[in-house]
Design a protein that fits this description.
It is built from no helices and 27 strands. With 325 residues, the protein is mainly beta. The protein has a 16-stranded antiparallel sheet with strand order 1-2-3-4-5-6-7-8-9-10-11-12-13-14-15-16, with no helix packed on it. A 9-stranded antiparallel sheet has the order 19-20-21-22-23-24-25-26-27, with no helix packed on it. A two-stranded antiparallel sheet has the order 17-18. The protein is elongated and about 100 Å long. The termini are far apart.
């Protein structure tokens, strides 16, 4: 069935094919078109340069608004919602000027891109991560309940000449501070800086220069790769295993409650340390040379001890035990 009505500049046309219906209304520059296919509906409104289009597929809804150079699109899939807005001449989702938002259940991810400026926000229940990038400048804020950690980076172009790390958790933690309350920071070869919690917790994530992070309840696995260097940290509750690889250099640390095992490999040189509460065993291998030391200490290995045959000697704390012995 086809039905057409024309009143001056106004036209209404209806087509019906069984379950299929198409209806078009035209008022001068204004046009409204509706297509119905069973549970599927498509509606288009055009007002001069303004266009609004709505698609409905059962629980799925897609709505597009176009105002000249501005476009806003919304997708709804049951509980999941995806919204993206474009502020530019072209209407591509990855256009450099745009806003991209994903929402599903308790998780939300939002990305804003304005030229060289980018802002990204991730929300997982009580966990919020926000990243701001302004050209060479990056600021990242992590919020876990009442815990806030912020990192500022000035990058040129990737590895910044100046790196400043601190926590909004009381007093600042400085890069050369050897022992903090819950954070241990050290400097490795070159100008790279790393930050690690002493005991593994599921409420800590840290990006450096490219990251791959997984988080499941108390388990977190993070892999950082920058050039030839790789850092991998799996954390299971209070258990943490950390591996650092810098070219020919490898460091591996295992922490099980009060038990710690650390292995350092520099070419032909290997150093292995076992710490079980008050007991420490250290083995050094230089080619075919092996040196082993057993120590029973009252207040554990963390105490500053002045001994000629131990790497903990206080006079060399600035260089750290990490240097080639």
């Amino acid at each position: 069935m086809e039905n057409t009505l024309i009143y001056g500049r106004y036209m209404e046309k209806t087509l019906i094919y069984g379950r299929y219906t198409e209806k078009t209304l035209v008022y001068g520059r204004y046009m409204e078109k509706t297509l119905i296919y069973g549970r599927y509906t498509e509606k288009t409104l055009i007002y001069g340069r303004y266009t609004e289009k709505t698609l409905v597929y059962g629980r799925y809804t897609e709505k597009t608004l176009i105002y000249g150079r501005y476009m806003e699109k919304t997708f709804i899939y049951g509980e999941d919602t995806h919204i993206w807005k474009i502020h530019g001449e072209e209407t591509h989702i990855w256009k450099i000027h745009g806003e991209d938002t994903y929402i599903w259940k308790g998780y939300m991810e939002k990305t804003l891109i304005y030229g060289r400026y980018m802002e990204k926000t991730l929300i997982y229940g009580r966990y919020t991560e926000k990243t701001l990038v302004y050209g060479r400048y990056m600021e990242k804020t992590l919020i876990f309940g009442t815990y806030i950690w912020r990192r500022h980076l000035y990058m040129e172009p990737i590895y910044g000449e100046y790196t400043h790390i601190w926590k909004i958790h009381g007093e600042d933690t400085h890069i050369w501070k050897t022992h903090g309350e819950d954070t241990y920071i050290w400097k490795t070869h070159g100008e790279d800086t790393y930050m690690e919690p002493i005991y593994g917790e599921d409420t800590y994530m840290e990006p450096i220069y490219g990251e791959d992070t997984y988080m499941w309840n108390l388990y977190m696995e993070k892999t950082l790769i920058y050039g030839r260097d790789m850092e991998k940290t799996p954390i299971y509750g209070r258990y943490m295993e950390k591996t650092l690889i810098f070219g020919r250099y490898m460091e591996k640390t295992l922490i099980y409650g009060r038990y710690t095992e650390k292995t350092l490999i520099y070419g032909r040189y290997m150093e292995k340390t076992l710490i079980n509460g008050r007991y420490m065993e250290k083995t050094l291998i230089f080619g075919t040379y092996i040196w082993r030391r057993h120590s029973y200490m009252e207040d554990t290995w963390r105490r500053h001890i002045y001994m000629e045959d131990t790497w903990r000697r206080h006079s060399y704390i600035e260089d750290t035990w990490r240097r080639h012995l």
